Amino acid sequence: MGHARLRCHFVLGVAWLFALTALYRSQSNAIRETDGTRSELISKLGAVDNFTPPMDRVIPTDRLELFLSIRENLAEQQASWHPETHPLEFPLID
Length: 94
Hints:
Elements: H1 2-45, H2 61-81
């Protein structure tokens, strides 16, 4: 009876080892993919520090114009997706 119990514990231990190894591999692949995506975004859009507001809190004109143009474009797309809704229900800044 003791050998059977020992064998059962050994089999369960090996099964846990395989399960943990599979979990580790899946998580490490996900982390690598996330790092790759993050690197692609940084190379395409720039570092997060590039989007940090300046200390004087004044938004540069080119950045504000870019934001508003993207917002208008999204409003047009939203209207085509859901014609029954009003696109971006707050007024655009003039």
